[in-house]
């Protein structure tokens, strides 16, 4: 059987969302690394896979190509029948979707952008990212003080989408010290069977 191919970059939190979910859900992928620093995402061949010239991209067979980490999580959960990770009832599905949106909006423009500046020197405004992080982390911490997981009574792809850039916030010099419920949730994700860290 041919495995789905994940076009990946090891330090990318967006790629880590997919590797983490695959590891937790027991889905095997072929990993192909793309060297972003060398500009390999800008080749004609890669641009044909993803016009946005970004990783992750998932290629499954001859015809199926999915870009965007959230979309890949949904695709894998559906394709492999991982229904616990992506509920199909309207409320359950909507609750997962709202956190997938938080992952690409509030979490991206807060801790993920701060990490891009501090770790990779991206020309973004660090002060804006730090201010956005404070609001985002506070809201998520408050939420998690009353909920064990983000979208359900059990882990879902929402937790996989949110975890990487929240757990890696200190790499962007965003401290998690003041957010005890967020730190409890991070420990709970890290205790799940099959968990892998970002550098694995
Ligand atoms: N919304 C996309 C964003 C993907 C994204 O921003 N990827 C970054 C790596 S984390 C990238 O490939 N950047 C290309 C570049 O910096 O040229 C997703 O969630 O997958």
TrEMBL record:
<dbReference type="GO" id="GO:0006749">
    <property type="term" value="P:glutathione metabolic process"/>
</dbReference>
<dbReference type="InterPro" id="IPR036282">
    <property type="entry name" value="Glutathione-S-Trfase_C_sf"/>
</dbReference>
<dbReference type="Pfam" id="PF00043">
    <property type="entry name" value="GST_C"/>
</dbReference>
<feature type="domain" description="GST C-terminal">
    <location>
        <begin position="89"/>
        <end position="200"/>
    </location>
</feature>
<dbReference type="InterPro" id="IPR040079">
    <property type="entry name" value="Glutathione_S-Trfase"/>
</dbReference>
<protein>
    <submittedName>
        <fullName>Glutathione S-transferase</fullName>
    </submittedName>
</protein>
<feature type="domain" description="GST N-terminal">
    <location>
        <begin position="2"/>
        <end position="84"/>
    </location>
</feature>
<dbReference type="InterPro" id="IPR004045">
    <property type="entry name" value="Glutathione_S-Trfase_N"/>
</dbReference>
<dbReference type="InterPro" id="IPR010987">
    <property type="entry name" value="Glutathione-S-Trfase_C-like"/>
</dbReference>
<dbReference type="InterPro" id="IPR004046">
    <property type="entry name" value="GST_C"/>
</dbReference>
<dbReference type="Pfam" id="PF02798">
    <property type="entry name" value="GST_N"/>
</dbReference>
<comment type="subunit">
    <text>Homodimer.</text>
</comment>
<comment type="similarity">
    <text>Belongs to the GST superfamily.</text>
</comment>
<dbReference type="GO" id="GO:0004364">
    <property type="term" value="F:glutathione transferase activity"/>
</dbReference>
<dbReference type="InterPro" id="IPR036249">
    <property type="entry name" value="Thioredoxin-like_sf"/>
</dbReference>
<keyword id="KW-0808">Transferase</keyword>
């Amino acid at each position: 059987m041919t495995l789905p191919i994940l076009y990946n970059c090891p330090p990318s939190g967006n790629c880590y969302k997919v590797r983490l979910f695959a590891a937790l859900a027991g889905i095997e992928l072929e990993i192909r690394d793309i060297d972003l620093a060398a500009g390999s995402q800008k080749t004609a061949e890669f641009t044909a896979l993803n016009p946005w010239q970004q990783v992750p991209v998932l290629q499954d067979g001859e015809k199926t190509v999915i870009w965007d980490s959230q979309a890949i999580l949904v695709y894998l959960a559906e394709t492999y029948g991982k229904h616990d990770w992506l509920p199909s009832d309207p409320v359950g599905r909507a609750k997962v979707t709202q956190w997938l949106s938080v992952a690409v909006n509030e979490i991206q423009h807060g801790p993920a952008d701060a990490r891009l500046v501090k770790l990779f020197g991206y020309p973004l405004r660090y002060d804006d990212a730090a201010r956005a992080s404070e609001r985002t982390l506070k809201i998520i911490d408050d939420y998690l003080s009353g909920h064990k997981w983000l979208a359900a009574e059990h882990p879902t792809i929402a937790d996989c989408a949110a975890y990487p850039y929240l757990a890696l916030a200190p790499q962007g010099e965003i401290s998690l010290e003041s957010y005890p419920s967020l730190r409890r949730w991070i420990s709970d994700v890290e205790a799940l069977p099959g968990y892998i860290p970002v550098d694995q």
